[in-house]
Q: What sequence folds into this?
C-alpha cells in the first residue's frame, strides 16, 4: 500500500489545526506529515497521532518530496506556493478561494461531484464553506427533481473569518457584558477599511463588495454552486442569489434556503426521504418535538444538518429549508481531507504529465 | 384641547416600559397615566414625565374613566381585559397577537395604512415586530411597482421574547465565556416544552409550530402582511413566505427580504429613491463606504433602516434588501403610540355606538 508524504500549509490556523485532526482520523496512509506556516508561526509545536511536530516556515523547497498538500493559509499564500508544490510533484487540495474559478481546477464536494477529481492537473479546490453546506442539501434535490431557482440567506459564524476574528468576538462579548467599550479591528472583514462591533450585532458584509452591490462571499455562493452542480460557473440553468450575514456565533453556519424545483409534483416528504438517504446529510426535522438543526449541535460534526423542510404554501414546487454545518469541518478541513481521500482511493495522488502550473500574477 | 386618561397594560415589561417612554415623547396630551400589570408587579414605581407612578394590579374596574389603553401584557391578558376596557368606553391599542386577525379589528402601521384607524370599534392591533419592519420597506414599493412575491428570512433579537429572555441570553453568554454549563428555561419560546441554549447559537423556532411545519411567527408574517397591504389576511395577490430564526443579539431584528415586483422596469436606484422619501424609513446603502443597517445602530431609534438594495442578477424585476429596526420601538411600543397619535389627530379616541366587545373564549 502506498503511503504519502503530506504537507499542511497554514497548519496553525482555525482550519489548519482541524486539517491535522481530520487527516489523523482519515483513511489516508501517511508516511510523513510536515506542518508549514509563516515565519511568525514557525517553531510552534503541534501533535499528529501523538507525535510532536515542529511547524516550519514555508519556502518553495518545503515541498520537495511531498506527495499531497492541504492548503489553508490564505489566497496569496496558495497563489505563491501551490505552483511551486505542483512543479515538485505534489498534488494540492486548496481551501482558499484563489483557484476555485479557474477552469483548469476542479471544485469538489465529494458527495456531489467526486468524479471531477479525475480531471485534476495538480491543483483541486475546496469550495467556500457556505457553498458546501448548501450544495450538500441541494445536490440530491437537483438530481431527482431539477432546480429552477435558489435564494439563500446565510447566518455565518465568526470562525469563518479566522481564529483572530473568533478571539475578537469573545473579547467583545465580555466587554459588552461588562458595559465596557469595544475596539473592533478585524470584523466584518480584515481586508476592508472599516471595522465594526460583532458581539450582539448583525453585519451584512462578508468579504469585500463588488461594484454590483453583492459581496464577494455572495458572488462565491452564486458561481461556486453553478460550477459544482452544472460544471460551469456562469451556467444559466439554475438561478442562484444570496445574502450573506455574519452573526455573533462561533462555529457552524446556518442558512435558509428557498428553492424551486422543475418537477412540480415534488413533495416535502419526498425531499425529506431523499435527504435522509443522502451521504453526509443528517435530517433533523421533527417540529412537533422541536427537532431542528442548531449551530451548537453541529459543532465538531462532519455532517450537514437539514431541517424545517416545508413547501411554500402559495408557490407549488417551491420549498423552504434550514441547513447547518460546521464551517471549519465540512465547510473547510473535512471536505479538503475528503477530496484527498477520494484522490487516494482512485490512486490519483500524482501530478499528471501535463501539469497545471498557474503563473503567480 | 382634549386631554386623555391613558392606561398602559403590562407597564413593567420590555415593551411596556418603552410604551411609557414613547408616550412621554409623543404628541398625545395626557391628563393622567395609569400603569397596570399583574399582581406580581403591583407596587413597583415607574416614572412618567418625572412624576413617580405606582404600578397597580389590573382589574376590570381599572379601566373606569380611561380614554385610551396601550396593551402589551400578553395575549390572554388582552383577551380578558380589553373587552372590559371597551365596555367602559376606552379605546385600546393592543400590541399582542390576540385580536390581529379579527376582521373587526384594524391592523395598523400608520405610514402604510393609517386610514384603517377610521374603522375601529374600540380595539386596534399593533402588528408583529417582524411584520412591521418588513411592511415599512415593502409598502412604498408595493404602491409604486406592485408586488408578486416576497421571501423573508429573519434574524430576530432575543428581546422579542421579553425581558426574561433577554436576561437569559446575557446570563448564558457569561456562562459560555466562563466555560460553565448553561441552564435554558425560556428560549426559544416560553410556551413550548423544550428550551435550548441561545448564547452563541441559532434557533430556527420563534413561537410554536403549526401542523404545516411553519411556526406561528412565520404564519403571522404571511397573514399580517396581507392584511396590512391588501386588507385581507388570505388575499392571494401577493405571495408571501418566511423563515424566522432567533439569533443571539439583544435588540433590533434583521431581515433579508427578497421581492419580485409587477413592474419589471423597476430598478434598484428607483427603489432606493422611493425608500429615501418614505416616512419612517432611513436608507443606509453605500457599500463602497461599508454603510448598511446594523442592529446596534438601530437600537433606540424609531426608524426602519434599509440597505443592501440590489437586483437579483438573473431574475429581472426581483431584488434583495436588508431591513433592520428596533423591535421594541417601531416593532412594538412606538408603532402602538403612533396608532394612538393617529387616533388623537383624527379625534377618534372614542368608542363608537356599535362597539366591538369580543367574547373572551
A:
Amino acid at each position: 500500500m502506498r503511503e504519502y508524504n503530506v504537507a499542511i500549509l497554514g497548519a496553525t490556523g482555525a482550519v489548519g489545526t482541524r486539517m491535522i485532526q481530520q487527516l489523523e482520523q482519515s483513511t489516508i496512509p501517511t508516511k510523513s506529515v510536515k506542518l508549514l506556516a509563516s515565519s511568525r508561526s514557525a517553531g510552534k509545536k503541534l501533535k499528529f497521532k501523538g507525535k510532536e511536530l515542529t511547524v516550519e516556515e514555508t519556502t518553495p523547497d518545503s515541498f520537495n518530496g511531498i506527495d499531497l498538500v492541504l492548503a489553508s493559509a490564505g489566497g496569496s499564500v496558495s497563489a505563491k506556493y501551490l505552483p511551486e508544490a505542483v512543479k515538485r510533484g505534489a498534488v494540492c487540495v486548496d481551501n482558499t478561494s484563489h483557484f476555485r474559478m479557474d477552469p483548469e481546477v476542479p471544485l469538489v464536494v465529494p458527495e456531489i461531484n467526486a468524479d471531477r477529481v479525475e480531471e485534476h492537473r495538480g491543483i483541486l479546490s475546496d469550495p467556500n464553506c457556505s457553498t458546501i453546506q448548501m450544495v450538500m442539501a441541494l445536490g440530491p434535490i437537483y438530481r431527482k427533481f431539477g432546480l429552477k431557482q435558489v435564494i439563500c440567506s446565510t447566518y455565518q459564524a465568526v470562525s469563518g473569518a479566522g481564529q483572530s476574528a473568533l478571539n475578537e468576538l469573545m473579547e467583545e462579548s465580555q466587554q459588552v457584558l461588562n458595559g465596557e467599550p469595544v475596539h473592533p479591528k478585524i470584523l466584518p472583514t480584515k481586508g476592508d477599511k472599516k471595522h465594526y462591533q460583532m458581539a450582539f450585532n448583525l453585519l451584512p458584509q462578508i468579504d469585500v463588495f463588488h461594484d454590483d452591490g453583492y459581496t464577494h462571499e455572495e458572488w462565491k455562493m452564486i458561481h461556486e454552486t453553478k460550477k459544482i452542480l452544472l460544471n460551469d460557473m456562469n451556467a444559466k440553468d439554475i438561478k442562484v442569489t444570496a445574502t450573506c450575514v455574519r452573526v455573533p456565533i462561533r462555529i457552524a453556519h446556518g442558512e435558509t434556503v428557498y428553492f424551486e424545483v422543475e418537477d412540480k409534483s415534488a413533495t416535502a416528504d419526498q425531499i425529506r426521504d431523499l435527504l435522509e438517504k443522502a451521504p453526509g446529510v443528517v435530517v433533523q426535522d421533527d417540529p412537533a418535538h422541536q427537532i431542528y438543526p442548531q449551530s451548537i449541535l453541529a459543532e465538531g460534526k462532519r455532517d450537514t444538518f437539514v431541517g424545517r423542510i416545508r413547501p411554500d404554501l402559495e408557490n407549488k414546487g417551491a420549498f423552504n429549508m434550514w441547513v447547518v454545518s460546521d464551517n471549519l469541518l465540512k465547510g473547510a478541513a473535512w471536505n479538503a481531507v475528503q477530496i484527498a481521500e477520494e484522490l487516494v482511493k482512485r490512486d490519483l495522488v500524482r501530478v499528471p504529465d501535463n501539469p497545471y502550473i498557474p503563473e503567480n500574477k
Notes: Chain B touches chain A through 61 residues (CB under 8 Å). The mean pLDDT of chain B is 97. The radius of gyration of chain B is 20 Å.
